[in-house]
Amino acid sequence: MGCFCCESVYNLGCVPACEGNYIDTGLIADEGNAGEFTMVLNFDGLEVSTSATIAVGDPIRFPFDSNCMNESYTYTAQIYDSEGELLPLTYDEITYDCIKFQTIIQIIC
Who's near 14: CB < 8 A, 6+ residues apart? Predict the structure, then answer.
């Protein structure tokens, strides 16, 4: 994994900051990229990561982890496939290299 540089960013919106919730990218793993995925988050100038094993046909999503994610913060993230290659993120026929989302405090999770 290389330099954390974003040229194009897709906004996922808000994610409730609760254990048991997921950061859902809205993308599905296909035969060419199923397996271990790593989401690298830019958190106040630091990089933290979380991983998930995803099968073909399953949504690419990562568990919310209160050990490395603040409950009220806007994150920028890059996703890497099992080969350590940056995963191109395609939404509405436009390809992005990063996503962003805001964690929000939710009283009932």
Answer: 101, 102, 103, 104
pLDDT digits (tens, 9 = 90+) for 1-21: 556 678 899 999 998 877 678
Rounded to 5°, the CA angle 45-51-57 comes to 130
Please state, as a whole number, how many other Cβ atoms lie within 10 Å of the Cβ of residue 43. 15
Interatomic CA distance for residues 85 and 21, integer angstroms: 26
d(CA 74, CA 101): 6
Residue 69 has what pLDDT? Answer: 75
Task: Give the Cα separation of 63 and 44 in Å (integer).
Answer: 20
Are 51 and 74 contacting, i.e. CB atoms less than 8 angstroms apart? no
Sign of the Cα torsion 38, 48, 91, 28 reads positive
